[in-house]
């Protein structure tokens, strides 16, 4: 029991340290150091430079058959998780309870900006490597399913998907892992340095967004509470139940710990990318921003609790 509680407490401390970064971004806006318009530039840097570098850095691992097998397991697990979330949300949407922006806010978690730094610091470089499987799968879903739900068929551009820096980084990272090839040392150092910016940059962006939203309106939006409950409590508990009943965590000797990486990727706050894509498709991006901010605040409590429940049920 003490070991399970220890990981939850470490997770809470890490989330609190990242919350301080959010406060820094918030204060920078309040003191007129940064403006809301700066989020567009910072988001572009995060999406198209920093995140691809983080992916390339994480995939720079020595190839072994065991690692390759585990990576495949994580890719399959991440794909299944997204199909489960999409199916569950489709059922809810048919009842007319949630609109497309809310649907995508439930389905997609902030697995890059928030979860990657947490996994790297708590579980180590090996776990970070497997976490990239979740990011790779979610990136594909974001640029296909999410774009389709927000903008229709016209929003899904195959050429843009294939030339997206994140998709290119994933393919290149897998090739480097399989072949054992690597970049020259100066390039590796630059990639590592840029990739390490993902967490702090994402939290600063969240703080800037929060500074430009009336928090009283955030907590007055009753619909957003429902979305946060689904994203942070109902869907994570559904995954624990499925894993418990299916016995998947007994496939390998360390499957429970391996799938925890996927679980962490799935239980975070609503993806900030949904806000950016909603804005791109002229959808209600303010609602996506409200859900994102609210879920970031609530995840400080829910994520440690969900990890404790995961360990209690599956270890």
Notes on the structure:
The chain has helices spanning 2-30, 38-58, 65-94, 100-107, 111-123, 125-151, 158-162, 165-179, 185-195, 198-211, 215-220, 222-246, 255-266, 272-280, 285-314. The protein is an all-alpha fold. Helix 1 crosses helix 10 (198-211). The longest helix has 30 residues, at 65-94. The relative contact order is 0.18.
Count the E strands: 0
**Portion of residues within helices:** over 70%
Q: What's the main sheet like?
A: none
Instruction: List unreliable stretches of 5+ residues.
Output: none
Rg from Cα = 19 Å
Order of helices and strands: HHHHHHHHHHHHHHH
Give the topology.
Layout: H1 2-30, H2 38-58, H3 65-94, H4 100-107, H5 111-123, H6 125-151, H7 158-162, H8 165-179, H9 185-195, H10 198-211, H11 215-220, H12 222-246, H13 255-266, H14 272-280, H15 285-314
What is shown here, in short?
The chain is mainly α and about 325 residues long.
């Amino acid at each position: 029991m003490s070991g399970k509680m220890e990981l939850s407490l470490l997770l809470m401390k890490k989330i609190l340290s990242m919350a301080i970064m959010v406060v820094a971004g918030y204060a920078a806006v309040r003191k007129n150091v940064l403006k809301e318009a700066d989020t567009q530039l910072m988001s572009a840097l995060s999406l198209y430079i920093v995140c691809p570098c983080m992916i390339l850095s994480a995939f720079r691992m020595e190839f072994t058959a065991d690692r390759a097998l585990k990576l495949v397991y994580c890719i399959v697990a991440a794909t299944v998780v997204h199909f489960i979330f999409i199916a569950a949300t489709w059922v809810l949407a048919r009842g007319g309870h949630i609109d497309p922006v809310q649907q995508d806010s439930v389905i997609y978690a902030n697995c890059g900006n928030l979860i990657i730094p947490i996994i790297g610091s708590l579980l180590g470089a090996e776990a970070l490597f497997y976490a990239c499987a979740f990011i790779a799968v979610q990136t594909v879903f974001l640029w296909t399913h999410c774009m389709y739900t927000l903008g229709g068929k016209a929003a899904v551009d195959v050429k843009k998907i294939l030339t997206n820096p994140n998709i290119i980084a994933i393919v290149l990272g897998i090739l480097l892992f399989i072949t054992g090839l690597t970049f020259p040392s100066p390039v590796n150092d630059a990639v590592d340095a840029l990739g390490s910016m993902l967490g702090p940059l994402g939290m600063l962006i969240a703080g800037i967004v929060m500074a430009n939203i009336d928090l009283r309106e955030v907590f007055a939006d009753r619909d957003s509470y429902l979305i946060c409950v689904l994203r942070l409590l109902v869907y994570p508990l559904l995954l624990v139940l499925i894993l418990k009943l299916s016995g998947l965590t007994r496939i390998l000797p360390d499957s429970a710990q391996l799938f925890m990486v996927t679980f962490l990727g799935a239980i975070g706050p609503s993806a900030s990318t949904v806000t950016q894509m909603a804005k791109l498709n002229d959808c209600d991006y303010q609602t996506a921003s409200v859900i994102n901010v609210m879920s970031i605040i609530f995840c400080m409590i829910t994520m440690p609790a969900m990890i404790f429940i995961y360990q209690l049920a599956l270890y």
